[in-house]
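Progress note, sequence design subtask.
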């Protein structure tokens, strides 16, 4: 987990030559052109003579189906939110402080590492945390629990997360990049020499929250009804995973937030771009903004958390499309 990684390559080794593996994490090689400057780990548009094993329903074989006859790989797939899905626990009491610390790290260190190479700021879920897509000469910066990893080619260096200044010296070879985010509503960098105070249990929960969010959002994105969809990205400004879909007059953002100033607990949300134009419905239950929310307190006890999450998103999408009944 802390060494050099190739998520798609690791998955391909697990499934063997008879299948083609798809994952949720970014993998090398770096994409150095185009609109996204990043790979699309779940994409199946390239022709394949072998069945594709994917975390997305509708592929040749889902990881869940593939695992039924291969239980020895269950823990491996579950850790990566590909299949054999684990349940999200109640958030630890230390989550707010650790979320703030890692949000600052994402804004001022992790995202700037990618931005310096290609101007892009978005992140992705990675095993045990969050990180950049690969950039430059197959480079990546990612957070794994309480550690920061800087990968360059097939070599990785690891450092315990302590201060913002130390993290920036390690990942950026310089100070934290505070200037780029001055126009965004992001946490203050604070004193860069103060200890960030990342709690291991809370960091592990955040990693699982983003893995859960990505596994659900990518399945939603793959629905035929999610027309005009862009990619699921983890935005450093809000520290949430989200994508947009539907035509302009009904377009909306579907996302998973670890909590913010409006809602302290983690929550799922749907926010229409033009709330005044959407059909009236009881699904729009958010307070303080026009949209819908499913808070962690309602999700955590659900018998099937992923099913409840997808039902929430799809109901909102149906309302937006005028298909609600």
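Output:
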């Amino acid at each position: 987990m802390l060494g050099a990684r190739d998520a798609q390559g690791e998955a391909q080794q697990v499934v063997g030559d008879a299948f083609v593996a798809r994952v949720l994490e970014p993998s090398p090689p770096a994409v150095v052109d185009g609109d996204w400057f990043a790979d699309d780990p779940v994409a199946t548009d390239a022709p394949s003579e072998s069945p594709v094993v994917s975390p997305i329903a509708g592929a040749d074989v889902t990881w869940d189906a593939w695992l039924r006859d291969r239980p020895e790989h269950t823990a491996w797939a579950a850790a990566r939110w590909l299949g054999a899905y684990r349940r999200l626990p109640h958030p630890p009491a230390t989550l707010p402080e650790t979320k703030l610390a890692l949000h600052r790290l994402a804004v001022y260190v992790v995202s700037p590492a990618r931005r310096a190479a290609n101007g892009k700021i978005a992140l992705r879920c990675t095993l045990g945390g969050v990180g950049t897509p690969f950039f430059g000469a197959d480079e990546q910066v990612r957070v794994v629990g309480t550690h920061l990893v800087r990968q360059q080619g097939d070599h990785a260096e690891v450092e315990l997360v302590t201060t913002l200044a130390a993290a920036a010296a390690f990942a950026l070879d310089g100070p934290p990049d505070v200037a780029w985010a001055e126009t965004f509503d992001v946490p203050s960098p604070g004193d860069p020499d103060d200890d960030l105070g990342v709690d291991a249990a809370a960091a592990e929960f955040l990693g699982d929250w983003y893995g859960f969010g990505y596994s659900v959002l990518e399945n939603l994105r793959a629905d035929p009804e999610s027309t005009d969809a862009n990619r699921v990205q983890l935005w450093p400004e809000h520290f949430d995973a989200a994508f947009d879909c539907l035509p302009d007059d009904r377009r909306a953002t579907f996302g998973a937030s670890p909590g913010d100033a409006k809602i302290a607990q983690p929550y799922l949300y749907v926010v229409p771009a033009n709330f005044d134009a959407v059909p009236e419905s009881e699904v729009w239950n958010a307070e303080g903004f026009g949209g819908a929310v499913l808070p962690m307190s309602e999700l955590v006890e659900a018998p099937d958390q992923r099913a409840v999450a997808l039902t929430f998103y799809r109901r909102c999408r149906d309302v937006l499309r005028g298909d609600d009944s």
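The CA atoms of residues 174 and 206 lie 27 Å apart. Work on this subtask will continue into the next period as scheduled.
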